[in-house]
Amino acid sequence: MKNRKHIVICEDAKTRITINRKWCKGCEICVEFCPQKTLLMEGDKAVVRDIASCNRCMLCELRCPDFAIEVSEGTGR
Amino acid sequence: MTEQRETRRIRFIQGNEACAEGALYAGCRFFAGYPITPSSEIAEVLGEKLPRLGGRFIQMEDEIAAMAAVIGASLAGVKSLTATSGPGFSLKQENIGYACITEVPCVIVNVQRGGPSTGLPTGPAQADILQTRWGTHGDHPIIVVTPSTVAEMFTETVRAFNLSEKFRTPVVVLADEIVGHMREKLVVPATGEIEILGRAKPACDPSEYRPYDVSRGDVPPMANFGEGYRFHVTGLSHDATGFPTSDAATVHADQVRMTRKIYGRLEEIEKSEETETGDAEILLVAIGSTARSARSAVRLARERGLRAGLFRPITLWPFPDARVRDLAKKALAVVVPEMNLGQLALEVERVAHCDVPITGVHSAGGEAISPAQILAAVEKAVVR
Amino acid sequence: MGFDYMKYLREEKMPHIWCPGCGHGIVMKALIRAIDKAGLDQDRVVVVSGIGCVSRMPGYLDFNTLHTTHGRALAFATGVKMADPTLHVIAVMGDGDAVAIGGNHFIHTCRRNIGITTVVANNSIYGMTGGQRSPTTPLGDNTSTTVYGNADPPFDISALAVAAGASYVARTTTYHAQQIERLIVSGFENRGFSLIEVIGPCFVAHGRRNRARYKSNLDMYREEKETAINVTATKGKPQSELMGKVTIGVLHHAPMPEFTDEYQKVIEKATHVRTI
Lengths: 77, 384, 276
Fold this sequence. Notes:
The complex is a heterotrimer.
Chain A: E1 7-11, E2 15-20, H1 29-32, E3 39-42, E4 45-48, H2 59-63, E5 69-73
Antiparallel strand pairs in A: 1-2, 2-5, 3-4
Chain B: E1 9-14, H1 15-25, E2 30-33, H2 40-49, E3 56-59, H3 63-75, E4 80-84, H4 86-102, E5 106-114, E6 120-124, H5 129-134, E7 143-145, H6 150-167, E8 170-176, H7 177-181, E9 183-188, E10 232-234, H8 248-263, E11 272-275, E12 282-285, H9 288-303, E13 308-313, E14 315-317, H10 321-330, E15 333-338, H11 344-352, E16 358-362, H12 371-383
Parallel strand pairs in B: 2-3, 2-4, 4-5, 5-8, 7-8, 12-13, 12-15, 15-16
Antiparallel strand pairs in B: 1-9, 5-6, 7-14, 11-13
Helix pairs in contact in B: 1-2, 1-6, 3-4, 9-12, 10-11
Chain C: H1 24-38, E1 45-49, E2 64-67, H2 73-83, E3 88-94, H3 95-101, H4 103-112, E4 116-122, E5 125-126, E6 132-133, H5 157-163, E7 168-173, H6 177-189, E8 194-199, H7 217-227, E9 228-230, H8 239-242, E10 246-253, H9 259-275
Parallel strand pairs in C: 1-2, 1-3, 3-4, 4-8, 7-8, 9-10
Antiparallel strand pairs in C: 5-6, 7-10
Helix pairs in contact in C: 1-6, 3-4
């Protein structure tokens, strides 16, 4: 994909959360079932509320039916 | 592993057995079927002989599954066959349509018995003529061949496989109970005596492959599953990439192309036999076992000074419009004997444009039509 | 680096057609991860489906993919596997596809133990056609064809597979996403037919018609979480305590000879007969 403006990356030293806003359908599964309440809905898209709270359990990624949210190790940038 | 034979063999066998032998000769290495009279011998012979050649045989849970398995096996690159009769042929229609739209080569044998429904399981009929052409829904081309002898059960099955591979299409071998169960001499050709065709393979890099790329002709080259091409096959209307589309222009053009790929190359598909048609005033048109009686009727008519001749389509679909039209034009009357209430006659009427009186000779009760019955119709046609 | 889903997705076909909150995407993701974990050669994987919402899955997956006719996925898959037993054949179906129109193929493929890993995404409804009752719709539920409540009893797909002789039967829900992946991987390891039933939601065509239970798709996921009980936790529990529960985990594993292996013996026997 040439235009990557819809890819939103939120990152700290430990965690990197990538949200594809074009693919996110706003189902709220990731927000509802996040054990750390790291995410929240902003309009009809999921966004990161507090990156530091994420423990990288991966449940948001595994339960996202739309391949719209991914969690990986932070690169420290 | 293939059965290599350097010499011809002479055998005295049943039509259904000859069909099975023809399939093996053509390189068929997978059969899926379901028991049904009067075609079961084809399954029985292949159940025994396929594994000897490293091929595989499976008796599926129903006729629908057998047709599906045949298409699946062909996609994995193996020439595949199923055989059935009317009730099973009706069940298979759904997946025959799938093979048509996905352009997967395969061969279906229908040894006709009386119908509709369970009908006459052991009685012959020729009442699936129109079903072979239009049995599955939607516009679609299909090739149908109709053997009339045990020898043709062999050669036409071989030709059916060749046509299916060459044109990427399902091909039906439309036999009848009489041809399927009669025993006659069969000269099994030596290996190589009949040319065996395979499907055109893509020459491009897998990343460039489009499964319905018709830029070089109406029959797209076909990769097999597992070879690295990783393509998509769907029964939804699709474009050259194989993925679904509902774009009206694309779908229409593809339907036209699929019909053209068969109807645009009739000279490679049509096959027929003519007996005394050169000066025929009374034209007989017949297929399968009925054509055998019709040939005798021609002889009997000639002995009585009547100029009768027989046209026998061996490729039934596409119907040989042009030749039937020419012959009908020269004739004073046309007689169409068939084991049904008038199906082949509809096609003859269509192409003859009502220029000539057409009489049918019918038998729908599971009995063969005799030469005497046909002769009587010929004599009556002359008086008229 | 995270997991590289794009290696297995036909990216240009995404985003997929499934509705917001639909569980089919979760199943697809778990399948991709399981294939990766099992290390299957992408060129040697064939994914076969029938007709229905989840049967659109192969279109998004970068393998050899076959979207067939309604209910017939396992019959097509059987042909593929018979033609080349070295291929990894995976079938994906919905509940209507697998056990209504395809019920006959389903029980016979279980019985035959042919090497096809089968994932049934069971959302208890015909979603694509607009929410008609399926063979797994609960009694009493409102659907577009049961407007006074469903009177037609449902199938237990996993129990059906066990009864039909399947060698590996596992069940979970879309809420238990990690478990889907694990169960598919162990399904790959079973030589023969493996069934992984994944119970999932269809809020748009099923939940919305049963508002007393479901205000949103999230209520359907919550229900999956609350009603699920792991098979290991059911041991010794009286039937009364298991009422209304959905048992998840590996429900049945009884290895038996795989069909194409057995057919290879037929080939050897037939070849031998010929030479003596």
